[in-house]
Amino acid sequence: MSFNMQLWEVRNGKLVDLRSSALDKEERLENWIAQDASVLGLELLIIGRQVTTAYRGIIDLLAINRQGDMVVIELKKHKTPRDIVSQILDYATWVKDLGYKEINAIAFKHLKKSLPSAFTDHFNESLPETLNNNHSMIIAAAELDDASERIVQYLADDHGLNINVIFFNYFQNNEQEIVGRAWLMDPEEVNERSESRKKAPWSGYWFVNVGECERRTWKDNIRYNFLGAGGGKWFSNGLKRLQPGDKIFAYLKGVGYVGFGEVTHKAVMIDQFMVNEDGAEKPLSEAQLTAPQATDGLADPDLSEWAVRVVWRKTFSKEEAKTFKGVFANQNIACKLRHPETVEFLVKEFDVLEQ
After folding, report:
1. What's domain 7-196's architecture?
2. How far lies 118's CA from each of 21, 32, 73, 134, in Å?
3. pTM for the complete prediction?
4. What is the arithmetic mean of pLDDT over 171-191?
């Protein structure tokens, strides 16, 4: 069934219907996404606009995510519903084979700087060594017909393609303009289904980045039984994926795995995370942390540090971190651990079978 978004204004205690209408120019939506891809609810860097493929097609927007994977974004504009689905699939057949040289050339043309430089400026970390292991497709539209939605869902559910539709609806309230956004399918679930078809089965354990820096330290994690992330929605949202009962292996970037434990509570802001210190209960934000800057941004949930409570079963110091050549590690805050060799190694090193 075609998606329908509805908004109401509360006026004098009553709901007043706001009528949805078409954007006067759909190029406005493309401009908004090109200027700030966060309107999609994803952390992306737009590296190309109106990108010409080898098959003479023209991709509206081409982006890269933090993992170094390509994202094709196509606006429906004046295309027929069936055309937009077949068109984005055609673009994906070209994008999937792009290597570093081609991706860097596209980025330089659009951003006027090299891909490594642009990536570091945007994500505040180095470009991954391997690019374009996976790719995804996003159709941006005000609406699609039922048949096209069924096709997209069929491709995602039954064939594991990372394809989705994001709907933008436009409303006017007097002179005020309002834009609403919603996905056809949960993008995390679509991504998970797509990856599960290409990777080994989930081990049941989670990989979690410790992310030691001036805002947080592994010593604090051990002392106060938590893992933290923050300084942006992408970081805190990654931590929020963890649920009570999840078993995690903590990884210290560039060093190795340092802890195994179980999550006991969902993530909360650190001023709501209570700890016992010197016989008194206080928020983590007021504890004697070795990383005092962790209290920055408490007034803004998007910038604040967040913490998830963990019962540590076994931990090692940074100097004793466990690793081997080829051990699994990536830039996600939290992800499902699927690498068989890494799982076998960690289970042994952390005595997991004895827990």
Report:
1. 3-Layer(aba) Sandwich (3.40)
2. 36, 19, 19, 20
3. 0.72
4. 85
